User: Fold this.
Amino acid sequence: QGTRDHPPAHAALRDRLLAAVVACFKRHGAAAIDTPVLELRETLMGKYGEDAKLIYELQDQGGELLALRYDL
Assistant:
């Protein structure tokens, strides 16, 4: 089934909504952080324990095991 594409009108609405949320958070002193979508597999396995079954695993071209974080 895959992921869903969002047409331009939906993307624009999402951007406006996100901008409103970010502005509200900033008014109340919040600061943004940027976390990676991909992590080393061993890092996520140790971090999530039993929830590791929710991690999508993949291997990069060099053979390193990576995983997509499911909580983003």
